[in-house]
Amino acid sequence: MSADRKKFYLTTPIYYVNARPHIGHAYTTIVADVLARRHSLLGDDTFFLTGTDEHGQKIERSAAAAGIAPQQFADQVSKSFEDLWKRMGITNNAYIRTTDEKHKRGVQKLFAELHARGFIELKAYTGTYCVSDETFVDVPAGAPCPDCGRITEIVTEENFFFKLSEFQLPLLQLIESGKLKIENEARRNEVLSFLRGNWQYVLELSNEELGAPHNEPLEVLEAFDLAFKKGLLGKFGENLYYVPGALKDLSVSRSSFTWGIPVPEPAASEAKQKHVIYVWLDALANYMTAIGYGSTDADEEKKFKHYWPADLHLVGKEIIRFHCVYWPAFLLAADLPLPKAITAHGWLLFDNSKMSKSKGNIVRTETILDSFGDHVYGSQFPNSTKPERDLFATDVLRYFLLREIPFGQDGSFSFEALITRYNADLANGYGNLVSRTFSMLHKYCQGTISEGPPEQTLSELLTDLEDLTPKYDANEIRSLMESLPSVASELLDKGDLATWLKSTAIMVSTTDQMLTGLAPWKIDLQQPDGMRAVEQTLYCAAESIRIITALLHPILPAATAKVWAQLGLGDIEVAARNRELNNLQWGGLKPGTKLGALTPIFPRADKGLVQIMTDMENPTPAPTEGRPETPLKAATTPAPAQPVPTDSTHPAAAPRTSSLGEPAGTLPVGGSASTTTHNGPTPSHTEATASGPFASVASQTPITAGPADASPAITIDDFAKIELRVAQIIVAERIPKADKLLRLEVDLGHEKRQILSGIAEWYTPEDLIGRRIVVITNLAPRKMRGLESHGMLLAASEGDGGKPVLATFGEEIALGSRLK
After folding, report:
1. For residue 803, which of 763, 772, 757 has the smallest C-alpha distance?
2. Cβ pair 434, 442 in contact under 8 A
3. Rounded to an integer, what distance in angstroms lies between the CA atom of residue 235 and that of residue 218?
4. Could you give the CA distance from residue 99 to residue 74 in angstroms, rounded to a whole number?
5. pLDDT tens digits, residue range 786-803?
6. Whether the Cβ atoms of residue 314 and residue 32 lie closer than 8 Å to each other
7. Closest CA to 589 of 427, 448, 477
8. Burial of 608 by CB count in 10 Å (0-12 exposed, 13-18 middle, 19+ buried)?
9. For position 429, what pLDDT does the model report?
10. Which of 277, 393, 484, 675 could form a disulfide with 372 if both were Cys (CB 3.0 to 4.6 A apart)?
11. Right CATH for 694-819 from 3.40.50.720, 2.40.50.140, 1.10.10.10, 1.10.530.10
């Protein structure tokens, strides 16, 4: 700890020990590692935490099924996470386990503090409980869980409840004011929507019920204002309303099983039975217990005071609400500072479906490490060690995930895409630039960096290049070379890792074009200044490589260490500690620097590697946690889905605090993580309709030929009349007394609109927020249920009255873009 350095405390979610890690877990941890390395480069006092969530009834039963004790079961799975992070070179400062004694003490201290302050009380509760998801659900006794499809149980027990309901207004005000910072607009809107409750029921009330002085139709805000005056709604800002009491109290203990942290005294003496603290309160507290909360050791207490509050909680989008509602409520109740920021990333999709154990479409990180490490790096360097191969393969995975997936959005993964991106950007891009530049420096300059060109000469070189290649813009490359370091730093500060990597890829390409255009190998060395022209050209290329390498170091720590050494600059980790990687101004490469020994950095990967990786995933796997996992190919034939739950405000609903498996039987919608419901036989063809509040244009079921006269022909002029644009759903809410309608607010880039859509039977509001969709924008507005709808969503329909499947995008695209 250092008092004179800015501190940066970063956490990942702690991963639930229900299955071994896959690349979805690796993605979260890699993002955190990149941010931690970045802040360390800036000189910040950085502390990076990750770990595992190990309590709960599900773990207790899984351990019993495996014939081992819960602690042994948790030990085995947690070790697989910890070993993998070490194998990948992850730089976490601590690894917390919820079975650690220091964690148990801290959780009991937090529980006791909340109890002493009057925010925890004992109540009795009976409800339908899903053991698999460890949550109470709103379905009849014995019915399938609406999330995972497994049979539920009725549980009657006394529970300690946390008075979450008292924090509805404080949380709304904190989020709206920005004091509780949620770094993703879609996720922020999702949390606000949950906290506000279903306030639109007010629109169904009569003028008389609202106390209106007239019988004329009411404007929306007028109705809300009247409801506020009658005490039906509360306000937390200008024209911002909420339903008081919509946030319910939450159970924070269980007495039907024992695998958990015991409720401490004096609360324990109030109960008739022994209670354990419920898993999500247990798990969330890890962010504090890992840095000393609950400890009586003076150094640990000092550590907690120094690092808390967390500067950034990094979580998956499925648990954003629980980190932005329940966690800050606990902290407010305990009079502890709130985290400075919470941000959520999207899901990693394989075959357009979220990876999960229940679906059987998990890709293990070890598959990438073994295949790229042994079959690509190992074939080039047969004498290399296993750790060297692992770190090379980890760099490949790090680059792909952060280059392909804009942070906060869902992203697709495939073996083919991984190999293609690796060959294009690393083997043929960065690696090739390094190889050709250093080879020419050895050939023409005896491996020594000569003095670079003065600014005037650099301009002349770039102008010569423009003369050689008419399409080349000298001002553009000059601007790029001068501005990239500051632009990259700004992107890094925003966490925009994908755009950052695009910028460095542009600089690689531009430098490569410069070499090709100026062609130093063609320069006549016998001519006056011929050798100087070669030296200056190669200096420009080498200096570009220095800057690119410094920028890429948090992403490619192993590969950039080799490039840095080959450039003659020594140990890159020493340079990082000395803040040398922050020197990104042009001209930092000193004349006289001698290159180190040259070796290939990124050998090309053959397309045959796809089959190798597929074979690694698809053989009959060894049993894990007492039962075998489904082969990867099962992802192409999903089972029927269960209905999506509609009520997440159950008084005893217990959210997850770690990235657990997706419910069984879900099917992706247009590359998103939404689910469809299949009832009855698969239709033989797909019908395109435009009736109701949504229009159907595509389907995920195979299309066969329909009747020749199924649809009348239209001209291109007819089609041109329809304006289709990209929009993002920023608000999604149910409309009271309207079972089929949802009220959506969509962002078209240049404007926001309200659209009513009849998809409430198939989509929950939480599932829609943040999704990029296609909207017909030039339809005349119409009114439904007293609300104006201005536009129409584009979706598919499977057969007569079938479920709509929203048209979405698998790639990043600007809001407002027109479909042509």
Report:
1. 763
2. no
3. 19
4. 8
5. 678 889 888 886 655 667
6. yes
7. 448
8. exposed
9. 94
10. 393
11. 2.40.50.140
Q: What is the dihedral of CA 730, 734, 740, 745, to 10 degrees?
A: -20
Predicted local distance difference test score (pLDDT) of residue 667 = 24
pLDDT in the model for residue 290: 98
Contact 369, 394 (CB under 8 A): yes
Residues 518/519/525/531 CA torsion (nearest 10 deg)? 50
Rounded distance between C-alpha atoms, residue 758 and residue 740, angstroms: 5
Look up residue 779 and give its two tokens: 């339809």
Q: Where are the alpha helices (DSSP H) in 553-654?
A: 557-566, 572-577, 609-617
Task: Give me the residues of the chain with pLDDT under 50, please.
Answer: 620-711
Q: How far is CA 362 from the centre of its chain?
A: 17
Structure tokens at 24: 């979805």
Tokens linked to 189: 């809107």
Q: Estimate to the nearest angstrom the gap between the alpha carbon of 399 and the chain centroid.
A: 15
pLDDT tens digits, one per residue of 171-228: 999 999 999 999 888 899 999 999 999 888 888 898 888 999 888 888 888 999 999 9
CA dihedral 188, 190, 196, 202 (to 10 degrees): 130
The amino acid at 67: G
Sign of CA dihedral 251, 257, 263, 267: positive
Q: Environment class of residue 331 by beta-carbon count within 10 Å: exposed (0-12), middle (13-18) or buried (19+)?
A: buried
Give the distance between the most distant pair of CA atoms in the chain.
98
Residues 6+ apart with CB under 8 A from 520: 440, 444, 533, 534, 537, 538
pLDDT of residue 693: 28
CATH architecture of 7-166+249-354: 3-Layer(aba) Sandwich (3.40)
Determine the pLDDT at residue 672.
23
pLDDT at 628: 33
- The kind and range of the H/E element at 774 are strand 772-776
User: What pairing do the DSSP bridges indicate for beta strands 818-819 and 787-789?
Assistant: unpaired
Judge whether 804 and 759 are in contact, CB under 8 Å. yes
**Concatenated DSSP letters of 774-800:** EEE--SPPEEETTEEE--EEEEEE-ST
Prediction pTM value: 0.73
733: nearest Cα among 772, 763, 774: 763
What does 660-690 look like in DSSP terms, one character per residue? -PPPTT---STTSS------SSPPSS-B---
The structural domains of the chain, with segments of one domain joined by +, span 7-166+249-354, 365-386+409-582, 694-819
User: Is 669:687 a contact under the CB 8 Å cutoff?
Assistant: no
| DSSP letters for 97-137 | ETTSHHHHHHHHHHHHHHHHTT-EEEEEEEEEEETTTTEEE
Class of domain 365-386+409-582 (CATH, top level):
mainly alpha
Tell me how far CA of residue 375 lies from CA of 379, 400, 406, 649, in angstroms.
Answer: 6, 18, 29, 51
- Rounded Cα distance between 452 and 459, Å, is 12
Helix or strand run (H / E) with residue 370: helix 365-370
CA angle 354, 315, 332 (to 5 degrees): 140
Per the CB < 8 A criterion, the answer to whether 745 and 735 are in contact is: no
Give the phi and the psi of residue 561 in degrees, each rounded to 5. Answer: -65, -40
- Whole-angstrom distance, CA of residue 596 vs CA of residue 381: 18
